[in-house]
Amino acid sequence: MGNIDISSTEDKELSSSSNEVQDKNYCVACREEFFKLIAEFSEDWVYWINPDNTIGYMSPSAKHITGYEPDELAKYPNFLNHITYAKDLGRSRNHMKAISSGKNFCREDFRIIKKNGEVRWISHMCQAVYDIDDKYIGRYVRNIDVSEKMNPTVYKLQREKLVKNICEWASVGYYQMYFDGRLKSANKVFLNMLGYEFDELKSYPNFENEFVFDSEKRKEFKSALHKYGFVKDLESTWIKRGWNILYLKETAKVCHDVQGANAYYESYVYDVTERKNVEFQTIAASTRKQKYEELISGFFANISHEIKTPLNVIINMVSLLKADIEANENKSINGDISIIQTECDRIKRTINLILEMSQLQSGTYELTYTEFDIMKEVFEPLIQEYADKIKEKNLLLTLNNNLTNAKIIGDRYGIYQIFLQLLDNALKYTNSGKIEILLFNDEDGNINAEIKDTGVGIESEYIPFLFNVFSQEDNSYSRMFEGTGLGLAIVKKHCELNDAFIDFESEKYKGTKVKVKFNR
Predict the structure, then answer these.
(1) Partners of 396 in the beta sheet?
(2) How many other CB atoms are there within 10 angstroms of residue 20's CB atom?
(3) Beta strands in 204-345 (DSSP E)
(4) Which of 491, 502, 515 shows the shortest CA–CA distance to 360?
(5) 77 or 390: which carries more pLDDT confidence?
(6) Crossing angle for the helix pair 330-362 and 273-327, nearest 10 degrees?
(7) What sign has the CA pseudo-torsion 90, 96, 100, 101?
(8) Lowest-confidence segment of 56-70, 176-190, 312-326 by average pLDDT
(9) Dihedral sign for Cα atoms in the order 103, 106, 111, 114
(10) Residue 182 pairs with which residues in a beta bridge?
(11) CA angle 446, 448, 453 (to 5 degrees)
(12) ∠285-288-291 over CA atoms, to 5°?
């Protein structure tokens, strides 16, 4: 059995009417909430006047425009007259008369005095609002700050002052520059970056040319400003006091004059010098590491060549030696033994060079300074040691001793090594002609030595790298001459330890002259 509706028709009509009122009130409440939601996030100062002229709502932007909290204004029935600039009270009163006469929409521009005493222009608009039954429910009011529009020159200056203060507080550099390169203004942070006072900089007729390093990049920067109106995160190079380099990251925008033309530009700058230096150091370290790895690789290739080659010779000669012994060939046996001896000496020399360089590099080499005769204890033994090798290559070796005083104070072993390596190089790279050694005292009595050969010579661009560890002009496996690339690096170290200066003069395919001067 179905339900029976026993309510009367009159009850149903009352119920229907009540629901319509509730729906209408609900819609009004929804619209009010929506209005408040929009007003809360608006930059404009918005408020609502109830039919009894009380304030129903006021947005938080009241404080931004007037300096007063919304509650401070709402408690005064006639707060607008209270904050209106005295000379504009007539405009404000005319506006209120228009509202009283029943005008639905009114608009008026006038000045107000903010809480801090600052004078601002506002555009004041208000509109009567009615519900769906055409019943007046209040007035919507909106105020917009139009100060810059009404007095652009004054407020631009105020804005610039505010920007400078904000930048100084945030440790951000800020400057303004005319497009012809003159500095218009700058904050303290920017001036500190450059190391100058503003009075020092404003006298420059073209500040930009004097202090910005890359002129071509600067032209591109200003061209982009003219074209787009702004440039973001440009890295620029400046010259600070003391001719030091300063790296800045800039974000700039064009500022226009009253007629809308490009008057100057303003730029916010951050000092990125420390970061750039770290980047450069990282790149340099990476380059050094790569170069070091290449040197190490080349060194091990040389060492492999210097040890494997004589070992292969020794192994082969031992096989020949066995065959000669079995065949009783005495003449061949002596030649085999001589070759084995030579190659063993080569391996020994390579190992000694590695050990000596290791000691010099690590600081474990023991210096022993004594006074000795450089002619008797260095050059005479060297000439004797190399006499047979010179004869084998059919070269001429001459020693011109013009020393009036051959006494020297130094590390005897180290000085011997200097000339041992230099003479060894001269012999190694000279296939015909002669090697000359000249000894003399200069005006100060210092000992000078020159070794000149008629060998293959050195390319001029390679000379600055001669003393680098593992350095050789030809590092290929097929090079003509043996060597580890350690010899001249060891010579340089011993020269430094014995207060000696060394210099090279060379021409490819014509020969080399090495000068060594002792300063003690």
Answers:
(1) 434
(2) 10
(3) 230-240, 244-256, 262-271
(4) 491
(5) 390
(6) 160
(7) positive
(8) 312-326
(9) positive
(10) none
(11) 180
(12) 150
Token readout for 494 is: 């011993």
- Distance in angstroms (rounded) separating the CA atoms of residues 232 and 214: 18
Report the SS3 class of residue 314. Answer: helix
Instruction: Find the farthest-apart pair of alpha carbons in the chain and give their distance in angstroms, rounded.
Output: 148
Give strand pairing partners of 262: 256
Contact by Cβ (8 Å): 457, 513: no
The model's pLDDT over 315-370, given as tens digits with 9 standing for 90+, comes to 677 777 777 676 666 666 666 677 776 667 767 777 777 777 777 777 778 889 99
What amino acid is encoded at 82 in this protein? Answer: H
Cα–Cα dist 248/251, whole Å = 10
- pTM score: 0.40
Q: 423 near 386, Cβ under 8 Å?
A: yes
Q: Which residue has the tokens 């200097």?
A: 418
* Alpha helix (H) residue ranges in 101-151: 147-150
Contact of 417 with 490, CB cutoff 8 Å: yes
Determine what percent of the chain is predicted with pLDDT higher than 70: 76
- The one-character DSSP state at 433 is S
Angle at the Cα of 382 from the Cα atoms of 377 and 384, rounded to 5 degrees: 105
Identify the DSSP state of 75. Answer: T
Query: Which residue spans within 168-259 are E strands per DSSP?
Result: 173-178, 183-186, 230-240, 244-256
> Which structure tokens are listed for 31?
């619209």
Interatomic CA distance for residues 46 and 125, integer angstroms: 10
The CA angle 162-165-168, to the nearest 5 degrees, is 150
Tokens describing residue 155: 């407020």
- Indicate the helix (H) or strand (E) that contains 301: helix 273-327
3-state secondary structure of 442: coil
